[in-house]
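Interim report to the steering committee. The following record documents the input for Parvalbumin (108 residues).
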Amino acid sequence: MTDVLSAEDIKKAVGAFSAAESFNYKKFFEMVGLKKKSPEDVKKVFHILDKDRSGFIEEEELKFVLKGFTPDGRDLSDKETKALLAAGDKDGDGKIGADEFATMVAES
């Protein structure tokens, strides 16, 4: 992940949402520096978060999204996970594809 984003930005962004139920993907993507990255870099981050290499980030993977940025990240609550999925899953298939992820980042 630090090939794409600065370790300092990751630490700050993950730390900002360390409290339960505090996660806000729009603020997080902005703080972590993802919003300013090229579409290629956003895709790289997507593939890092797609742990099972299915081409999608499923609900189970979303729960651990902060850990995808740093091992110190907390797990998202079920409520936060469902809110993140609802925000990103534009076609209603229950998972977030690469294009949907790019749209989420762009909208943040």
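The radius of gyration is 12 Å. The committee is asked to note this result when reviewing the revised timeline.
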